[in-house]
């Protein structure tokens, strides 16, 4: 029998208030309570805390508190990743952020999605679609990255943009919904 957690990690429909997932969420909530009180700690001290919760944390990563996530164990950060204040990652499935990517304050990275069928929503079913953010990407403050999006290396996402589709390497996406802007 497949557990709700196994279904979640596979991107299948699952029930979010499952006891195993609720326990995982309580664990990360306690971790966030600790992490979000670390404003006076050095970057290396905060990085050690990140390594407790995340799947992978590259050297020189810096997330300025407060920071929020669903589980933590689905987040992989490359070397030198920076997230400014008040970022939120709903990591019901994999979120991968490449080396030297910079993410502005208040950015939301959302892998969690919900069925379009109202009957399935009434059953409290949801699913996730992974997000991949390449290396040397710059995401402006207040941007929202929606489920299933891939942002290529060296891309830029404008402040306040809502990214609903993939952004190619070197692309510039702005607006709501975000549209590619011509470079040059």
- Our measurement of the CA-to-CA distance between the termini, rounded to an integer number of angstroms, reads 54 Å
Number of strands: 20
Return residue spans where pLDDT drops below 50 for at least 5 consecutive residues.
none
Question: What's the CATH C level?
Answer: Mainly Beta
CATH superfamily: Hexapeptide repeat proteins
Mean pLDDT, rounded to whole units?
Answer: 96
Q: What is the helix fraction of residues, given as a range?
A: 10-25%
String of helices and strands: HEHHEEEEEEEEEEHEEEEEEEEE
Strand order of the largest sheet: 3-6-9-14-17-19-20
Number of domains: 1
Largest sheet: 7 strands, mixed
CATH names the topology as: UDP N-Acetylglucosamine Acyltransferase, domain 1
Q: Tell me the overall shape.
A: globular
Count of alpha/pi helices: 4
Family: Belongs to the transferase hexapeptide repeat family.
Organism: Methylobacterium terrae
GO molecular function: acetyltransferase activity; O-acyltransferase activity
InterPro entries: Hexapep (IPR001451), Hexapep_transf_CS (IPR018357), Hexapeptide_acetyltransf (IPR051159), Mac_dom (IPR024688), Trimer_LpxA-like_sf (IPR011004)
